[in-house]
Amino acid sequence: MALEITKDLIDNVRELIKNQKDTALSNFFAEVHHADIAEVLDELSFDEAVYIIRLLDSETTSEVLMDVDEDVRENVLEQLSAKEIAEEIDELDTDDAADVIAELPEERKQEVIQKIEDKEHAKEIVELLRYDEDTAGGLMAKELVKVNENWNVLTCVKEMRKQAEEVTRVHSIYVTDNDGKLKGRLSLKDLLMASTRSKIADVYIPKVDFVDVHEKAEDVANIMRKYDLEAIPVIDELGVLVGRITIDDIVDVIKEEAEKDYQLAAGITQDVEADDTIWQLTRARLPWLFLGLIGGVGAARIMGFFDDAIAENAILFMFTPLIAAMAGNVGVQSSAIIVQGLANDDVKGSITDRLLKEVSLAMINGLALAILLFIYVFATEQDMNIASAISVSLFVVIIVAGLVGTFIPLFLNKRGIDPAIATGPFITTSNDIFGILIYFWIAKVIIGF
Amino acid sequence: MALEITKDLIDNVRELIKNQKDTALSNFFAEVHHADIAEVLDELSFDEAVYIIRLLDSETTSEVLMDVDEDVRENVLEQLSAKEIAEEIDELDTDDAADVIAELPEERKQEVIQKIEDKEHAKEIVELLRYDEDTAGGLMAKELVKVNENWNVLTCVKEMRKQAEEVTRVHSIYVTDNDGKLKGRLSLKDLLMASTRSKIADVYIPKVDFVDVHEKAEDVANIMRKYDLEAIPVIDELGVLVGRITIDDIVDVIKEEAEKDYQLAAGITQDVEADDTIWQLTRARLPWLFLGLIGGVGAARIMGFFDDAIAENAILFMFTPLIAAMAGNVGVQSSAIIVQGLANDDVKGSITDRLLKEVSLAMINGLALAILLFIYVFATEQDMNIASAISVSLFVVIIVAGLVGTFIPLFLNKRGIDPAIATGPFITTSNDIFGILIYFWIAKVIIGF
Predict the structure, then answer these.
(1) Of A252, A255, A245, A251, nearest to A225 (Cα)?
(2) Residue A378 in contact with partner chain B when CB distance is under 8 A
(3) pLDDT in tens, B344-386
(4) Span B7-132: which CATH code?
(5) Considering only the top CATH level, what class is B278-447?
């Protein structure tokens, strides 16, 4: 079913491009889904990709352009004239069209918009460009089927047919009043059962889920997932129906949000993929590593304060990596659970309750691990003070790390900052430093150096 | 639109239950979406939840049961008789019904299945129970609209009407031959345009995406996402159409896969939520922490081999947390990118190419960070040997950690093991040990102790 993208296949396509076998190429790609053509283009050079785009009809290539990697799209669009881009745009639904135009350099945007033939389409795209891409407005398309509550069934069916031509998948028929305000939805079945002279106002269902145009994309995703919706209408500040979001866009939002959180937890700052260039990957990875370096230098400085004690208490210094690692691990666990809960809108109740719960949890884990460590160190070192210092520190450090890991994401979230940045290297590094500080302080108290 | 679940609301519901105000409760919940009722139930005690389930009609409660947390469902079902559960099952689509039954204890399964009134429904559920829950078979529902290619349009329309009653959302009409083999799909438009006596064989579209019943859920999700499908038919080994998967189930798969990977990367072994009990959270978190403890003890033992050197080279010991943390950070970054790439089916080409790329990347990051560290240590310690030992170690450790982080997930994936377990604490702990071993070995060579 799906095309398998092998090295042979790519080499074949390259060869055909080199020899300008346009008919063979057209015939081959005619049978291939646009998502697969996009994968082929991702593997080709930019010049080769442009060659294919120019060869295929704009109905296909506009879909292909939506599916290729962002850097391929950027480069291909650079090679095309404003007129050629406008032709692609004409084939796209308004939401995709707005996404493509939003990626263009400022001066080209105007040029392309003016060259769009369908003026109504151009107007709708301009409207969509006003919205932030992470909001319902940025996700929605203008293509939808809507009817006026004052129409009768006959008019309604006629109008619906006209509108449905523009819309790939109908999903729902929305009902508005004379001012365009969303009133409800219409079931196709009820419409077919009603007499042709009935007014829509008498047959529509007034209950309909909707979102505000400024709702955050992540919240729209949560709503559609929770209520199993395949499409949701979008209204503006006046209650006017302005667009519609479909489930396929939401699938992408869910996927991207999850990947972003995962990458932040792994210490990767930007949206990168395994196939990106070394330069892109370096830029995404170096900043958090630099933070880790600063943290490590900080830890070394803290230990420097205790360097008088090192000769007599060498064993203490050997357990610093253990304490630091455990602080990091506990911190990452706590913060990950909170970050995920916040993303799913699952975290309710007061911050104090959360912190109390985390303390109880950390005390159980901490006690279990501290007892094990005490037994090990006492068995190998035969020194009650050393064993106590190390295991009591572990216990305290686990509790503090759990609290820090819980508190920081909750705090960031309250301040409107994405809590996901508080996972991974950020929490590990700060907990390393906390951990080592607590460790040497407790050891000093117990052993007395 | 959505019901806001406040503490007041929960208290009110509790009060109504306590005073057995059944009419008030029924009236209140009649207006509430089942997903919201489920959220209310999640906040109530099990007895209270059972009270509500018994009060509402089984059409509503069957949906509610699908939406509540797994532990609530388990407890509510324990309180219900086999007959009551069978009534709920009768209201559910086959895929949801099979999921509920799969969660029941072995001896109850039989009892409940025998009490299902609709015997056809029961048979279909039994069939679905055969499939692994992480495969297409485990995801699919038996409810779908299918027509025989040998029917004429008139028969087809009549049969479709009958079938459509069972199906919540039609999405697509599938065409099969006399043996039930999937041949293609039917467009509603083509059907309406065709004369009533035309044979379906002459009007259907032979091109249709499908998946095999044993296809992995994650791969089904990738296919549906890639091709923007809202439903996909499922065929068995003989090509017979056996079910259909809809996008709402795929949204849950994508979400769950992403959450599972995220939790593994954070060192949490089971599917837990912020609201789970302390005991559930402990069980999910303690195993990885225990691994971290073992790793820390291992690191301490390695450093023990070098304890002669500690008095003269105290500064070396102070940088062990830095080396260990950087090894962990680099390892997590590399493994996360590979794990995510594997999940998205993005990682192509040979393992050697991947490792070479990772070496180049690690060399750039390593060199930049090693130079900074060299400057810092030399400036503070004024000792060329110490500064060299620490910074050369950092450079080497970053490369090794990158290789380990890249290789292990690729290796696990080749062996058919979920590569996501190789992120987080696993990679951090193994890299801590590698890192410290390399560090002291290089330091010994350069400084000579």
Answers:
(1) A251
(2) no
(3) 777 766 778 888 888 899 999 999 999 999 999 999 989 999 9
(4) 1.25.60.10
(5) mainly alpha
